[in-house]
Specification:
Helix 1 packs across helix 6, helix 3 packs parallel to helix 4 and helix 4 runs parallel beside helix 5. It is built from six helices and nine strands; from the N terminus they run E-H-E-H-E-H-E-H-E-H-E-E-E-H-E. The relative contact order is 0.15. The chain is about 40% helix and about 15% strand. Strand 1, helix 1 and strand 2 form a beta-alpha-beta unit. The strands form two sheets. Strands 3-2-1-4-5-6-9 form a seven-stranded parallel sheet, with helices on both faces. Strands 7-8 form a two-stranded parallel ribbon. It has about 240 residues and is α/β, with parallel strands linked by helices.
Amino acid sequence: MESLKGKKVLLIGATGGIGASLAKLLHGSGANVYITGRNAEKLSVAGEQTGIPAGRQFQLDITHESSVYETVAAVQQDGAIDILINAAGIGIIKTIDTLTTDDFLKTLQVNLIGSFWVTKAVLPAMKETKKGLIIHIPGVLGKVPMAGAAAYSASKYGLVGMMQSIREELKRTEIRITNLFLGGVDSSFWDNIDLRVQRDKMVQAEEAAKAIWFLCQQPVSGVVSEMVLQPFNHQAI
């Protein structure tokens, strides 16, 4: 396992259940963790809970391109980011007859275009050092769609394809890319989704965070290209 001590880690989306738990694990492992969140109040709370100082907290909405580049530039003032973790995303689950164009575009904007911007922002410095780790979380619906997930799956399938293409571009470097396919995590994702789900049988957010923490410690001699983590009773893949 690779030590995280002294590594510069940028965690996008640190105010949710998974992100907050992950930030605490990374900080406790000695990493220099920088966290972002859309909501300033929630971000401050996450910082207090994890011990990450205010100077490493950035209010960020990844649907604003200029803000993404400004945030990454601020984090990289004293050196390249070693690990980028993109845990930001939204889920709009609606059947096609109720799914609006606005729903579809909003989903693509956050889950795909926002992911494009954060990846593109960190890559130049990583290319200079010829190393780094980028972790995205397409979710199981980026592999196996379900009814009502037209917008969500479109965004996540797009993310997977995009990162596979970028991986080909980076073959002559030691920049590694990992996709984590999470399914059925008991998080705020389900709070506003009108589906009958058994949240007590889902993967706990803390356990999902531990999976990402594990991926951050991959030995530099290899790469976990993808990992699937889902509840035992789901078995979608």
